Amino acid sequence: MNERDALLRAVCDTPDDDTPRLVFADWLQEHGDEARAEFIRVQIALARGDASARLKEREQELFAAHQEVWEQPFEKFKAANSFRNLIYDVFFHRGFIRALVICDEEKQFADHATEVFQLAPIQRITFFHKWPHAASAECAELLRLKELRIYRAGFETKALGALLRSKSLLNVTRLELIADNDNGYLTAEGIELLSRSTALPALRHLDLSYNCIWLAILTEGDLIGQLESLKLRCTDIDDSGAEVLARCERLRSLTHLDLTANRIGDRGLRALATSRNLPRLTTLDLRHNLYDTEGGVEIRGCTPETRQILEDRFGAGVLIDGRLEE
C-alpha cells in the first residue's frame, strides 16, 4: 500500500474525524493537487458551520471544474451488458464522496462492495428500482453505513424480511423505505416485520413516506420506541390514524413528526396536541393536509380554534402553512 492509499484508508476507517481528511489535504497539496486539497478544506469549513457566500461559491467553482476527475474512480462500476450503471450518482461531503445512488438490477453490488467502500468514506446509500435484498443485505461493508434509503425498489415481504434480519445494519441510524406507484408499497406483513425487527439497534430516524401505513401494527413493536424522528408524508393518515399515534406510549422519545400531505381533521389534530405520550415532540409538520371540519367540509389549513391549541402546545414547532421542503 502506497502513502496515498494509506491516507485514504485512514479517512475511510474514521469517517467522522476531520483530522485524517485534513492530513490527506496537506499531502495532496504537497504533491501538486492543490484544487482537491482546497475542496476538502472548503467543504469541511462549510460542514463546521461557515456559511459565507464566498466559501459556498468557491465550493461550486472547484466542483464544476473538477467533478469529472474526482468521480472517475467510480466509473468502472457499470453493470455488464446493461444500459444501467451500478453507481448511478455520487454526493460529496467534507471533501469526499459520502453517498451513493445505486441501481442493482444486475445484482452487481455484492461483488463490488468491498472495492467501493475502499474508495471513499461511504455512509449513505440509496438503492432504487428493484433491489435484490437477500443478495446484498449481508454484505459486511454495510456496517459502515449510517443511512440507508430504498426507493422505488418494491417491498416484497420475503425480500424485506431478509433485509430486516441482516446483521450488517447495526450502525444504521436513518432508514428510508419510500414507496412508488409503479413498484409497490409496504404491506401489513412488511410493516409488522419492520416494527418487530431487532436488526436496527442504532435506528433513530425512520421515513415511510408514500406508503399506506398500518399504524396500529407499526406502533405495536418495540422499534418505534427507539425513534427520534418519524416521517409519514403522504401516507393517507386520517383522524383515526392520528389518534393511534397520540395513544402510543412508545413514542416518548420522538422529537420530530412529519405528517405532511395527509387528511387529518380537527379530532386527530387535537388528539396530537393534547397527547401525554409525546413529551419530547418539538416539531410537528402538518403542511398540505386537507382538514375535515365538523360539518364534513374539507379545507386547506385547520380551524382557528385548533390552530390555537396546536400553537399553545408546540409554539413555532408546529408547521401548518408554507411550502413543503423536498
UniProtKB/TrEMBL annotation:
Q: Which Pfam families match?
A: LRR_6
Which molecular function terms from Gene Ontology are attached? GTPase activator activity; small GTPase binding
Which residue windows are coiled coil? none
- Give me any GO biological process, just one: nucleocytoplasmic transport
Protein origin, superkingdom: Bacteria
User: Record's GO cellular component, any one?
Assistant: perinuclear region of cytoplasm
Where does the secretion signal sit in this chain?
none
UniProt-recorded name of the protein: Repeat-companion domain protein
Species of provenance: Gemmata massiliana
